[in-house]
Amino acid sequence: MTHNHNPLPEHELLTHKSFLKSLNTVDCLFALLTAAGAFFAQTRIQHTMDIYEMVILWASAGITVFLGWFFKPMRWFAPLCAVLAYGAVMLYDGDITHSDGFLLKYFLSSQSAIMWQCAFVFFALFAYITGAVLAQRKNVATNTLLGMGSVFAWVSAVAGFTGLLVRWHESYLLRPDAGHIPVSNLYEVFILFLVITALMYLYYEARFAVQKLGGFVFSFMAIVVGFVLWYSFSREAHTIQPLIPALQSWWMKIHVPANFIGYGAFCIAAMLGIAELWALRNENAGKKSWLPHSQVIEEVMYKAIAVGFLFFTIATILGALWAADAWGRYWSWDPKETWAFIVWLNYAVWLHLRLVAGWRGKILAWWAVIGLFVTAFAFIGVNMFLSGLHSYGTL
């Protein structure tokens, strides 16, 4: 009699390590470094914070730690941005007139860093598109140019986030009694949007190995950069202005970032929708496509919409709480609130059709693309064409 001594294969769920057990020494050091940074920030600027802002500070540190554990590149991204921003703070030395120094003037002042962000968005776009074309010709999955696109995307995110942190400090240098987080006007939130969109795309790029989709996402980001440059030079939107009374609330610090995680995810999904339609056209025609398979693109699109829907829901709830605090009611069917509900409903139906009804393919791709226009009108169109309680974000 023979005996089979080979053990039966274990199910994947049984061999999968828990999230906490997967952490290593570097993850623990990153957590300690983040906590030390939060403690340092609190001791240095405690006189400018109330209890709510201290809670936000430590909650932000906790979120940063989790992001660093979940998406490993964040372990160097967050400290690098903090070090660069603190270097700018040291160079200013409490005096806004020191901005004429070489490093501040050309690299570390908020406007300089943001201009570098805009430049590297275009660099990334060129590298992604050129790399994808060459990869198709040589029939390879990736190449040096696609890798450079990823590097340029990271540089754009670092420059943009550093610029926002420095701009926050500059607002206190200009007006010590009126400094504020830089998410108070279209110029500032578009910079935040570019940072969030780049980081989210880079996560999906690494998770699903879809570098060839970078050209689609960064094409839209280049359009946003074009608007930022126009808005900055023609309207001088980069000038730091006092915070209007309606926005003088700690609610803004959590409501706006959550909103723009949603906006960034929805915009990524729209660009992936275009990519999926292109891939489907090639697949149906029997042509060899340089894009990932349409099912892979749709999976990434679904992940983006699911994340965006979650954060947009959180942002809407936070907005209702802010409205109750400011105006005494949670909901008033103001045009901005109404269109926010339309955006929420649009993606709720999209997710329902995919998860419950089992829809796939072209119709969901088109839906994601059209959803971008619905989202864009809710964000900008309402402020341009309609009036209401939220009419302080006009062009």
TrEMBL record:
GO terms for molecular function: heme binding. The chain crosses the membrane at residues 26-45, 51-71, 76-94, 114-134, 146-166, 186-204, 216-233, 260-280, 300-324, 339-357, 364-386. It comes from Neisseria sicca ATCC 29256. It is found in: Membrane. GO terms for cellular component: plasma membrane. InterPro entries: Cyt_c_assembly, Cyt_c_biogenesis_CcsA, Cyt_c_biogenesis_CcsA/CcmC. Keywords: Cytochrome c-type biogenesis, Membrane, Transmembrane, Transmembrane helix. This is Cytochrome c-type biogenesis protein CcsB. The keyword Ribonucleoprotein does not apply. One of its GO terms (biological process) is cytochrome complex assembly. The keyword Transmembrane helix applies. Residues 183-390 form the Cytochrome c assembly protein domain. It comes from the Bacteria. It is a multi-pass membrane protein. It holds the Pfam family Cytochrom_C_asm. Signal peptide: none annotated.
